[in-house]
Amino acid sequence: MDSRGWVPATAGNISVRLPDGRIAITRSGFHKGFIPEDGVMTVDLDGRPEQSNLRPSAETGLHCGIYRRFPQAGAALHGHSVPATVLSRLAGPQVTLAGYELLKAFPGLPTHEAAIRLPVLENDQDIARLQARVTEAWDADPAHPPGYLIRGHGVYVWAEDMPGALLRLEALEFMLACELEARRLPR
Amino acid sequence: MDSRGWVPATAGNISVRLPDGRIAITRSGFHKGFIPEDGVMTVDLDGRPEQSNLRPSAETGLHCGIYRRFPQAGAALHGHSVPATVLSRLAGPQVTLAGYELLKAFPGLPTHEAAIRLPVLENDQDIARLQARVTEAWDADPAHPPGYLIRGHGVYVWAEDMPGALLRLEALEFMLACELEARRLPR
Amino acid sequence: MDSRGWVPATAGNISVRLPDGRIAITRSGFHKGFIPEDGVMTVDLDGRPEQSNLRPSAETGLHCGIYRRFPQAGAALHGHSVPATVLSRLAGPQVTLAGYELLKAFPGLPTHEAAIRLPVLENDQDIARLQARVTEAWDADPAHPPGYLIRGHGVYVWAEDMPGALLRLEALEFMLACELEARRLPR
Amino acid sequence: MDSRGWVPATAGNISVRLPDGRIAITRSGFHKGFIPEDGVMTVDLDGRPEQSNLRPSAETGLHCGIYRRFPQAGAALHGHSVPATVLSRLAGPQVTLAGYELLKAFPGLPTHEAAIRLPVLENDQDIARLQARVTEAWDADPAHPPGYLIRGHGVYVWAEDMPGALLRLEALEFMLACELEARRLPR
To answer: Which residues take part in binding Zn(2+) (chains A, B, C, D) (predicted)?
Structure first.
């Protein structure tokens, strides 16, 4: 993710659901391109750290929000690319992606003819309040895809396992880069 | 191809014609930046897999369409870049490339003064139908170059061997990137 | 820094404050992507080289200006990216960055709701005169962030230590890239 | 040069003047990111190969034109970037670069306040005729810098030695990238 410019500074974080139900997540304050061996810690489904002396990523609440809602979610990624940041700052409450072959990377979309509507949420340092808004967006649109944008901040995607989440993140970032290019062209 | 961003997610695929006429092609569902040893399989000229338990790339029919039509084609590449995706979504039925030194990478074009007209085809999950349209485009323009675009999807190129196909893909992607840059500039 | 295109040609330089108060800084005329073992030298707080036969970076005076003013500064970086160069050529006396999650990388900004105003200074080969203008900008805006731009030239950032300065440079370059993208879009 | 996208397909070439006055230059038809041990050959100042069975780069005549005219030139580079290609297609007979700190990489320009005027020549597969036009441009502007553009094709730069030529190419490509960015912004 670092080599593609998706985790600048200490931004971005990564989590997986362990077989026993605990969540392994990157710790706060590390550069995600250089994660040390002890840069990952475990929390419960409500984001409470098992080792009280370690601090999980500030956005652990958003990862846990995903795992609580979607029992089949096994891995979640938060990236922070230039296209996601710029587009989310310009967008309204949703970004619609249509007509891309790579939409096949999203579930329930057997063909490129479908479209996905990604919720775009206002950024908020109060993670519980932000997660409440995410849940609201999920409730409002039952066809929501496994991903959303936070304005000026980045993208969240999830899948059954880490390879699936990485493919989905790569497909999503590719389509966002295309959208940004297309918006740039004079009409 | 991965390091240049041409094979995001599971997109893109690669094939070569073997000396005995069979086609070796990447299997479905792998990330092409990390092809495992068993990530390649063989099919016949009609795309039928030799090992019935393996699934070839969904677009095997397009590779075989190339090998059936052009006896001299020895390698075919399908890439999936941001410029190819954005340009193909904006273009009409053809993209014309003219005045580039790199046009020399295409056959029958001894100088940069020539031009190539790349067909742009509507994307279709029905590969047989898509290949029928490709064949139609070849029939309609006898001067068609060894390459075409699929709208919102990517580019196909072929050549006598793999180094030749890679050079051609690199030249084509370079010129598409230039075209996208030029279209961006205010007129 | 080189792999991100931030130190083209001999541009860019790097310094740290040593425990005894001396400043270690890259020497003049080296490519900063390939710094040899003897490519770093030490100067005093006024930029005077300890080894009279070595020539420090031309901009040593700007590094020392930072260390003299900010006792807590332990590392300073000068980068030279395309976005910083283009934006600084277009900007007035300040560039304001607001609404970015990555603003958290700057001190005294607990949330993304704050904004930073980066001074933009006219380039000058007379480094003493340029440093005088930097000092003037610091005096004029007590809320100045730990960074500034020089027009057509690049960016300076500093922090308590080198990892902190690198994170800050990466966050700043990310936000400048977003700003440039946003300005490009037709309004 | 390859990792920066400056030598797509078989484009780009590299030469140095040997101590005995011969010119070592990359051979025709190789990808310059993967030069084999025997990918370099020697020619005399008029471009005649010493080994009659090897074919030098098609543009050997341009390299020799530089070495014949500038006795102090020790290395010459021909790159082929997207910004150089796009800008040269849009430009008139010259591209002027002004106000960049990196102009210091060019000789006789002690400060960033100077400007350089790069000749832009029409592309031509007749290399002798193209070199004649280059010579004409040099005669017409005694203040010409050690570099020029060929329309739709790329850039040539030279310097006393290879490290100097690489620095100059990097500085020039950086400034061309900045120019292209600046032209993109809506006015």
So the answer is: 78, 80
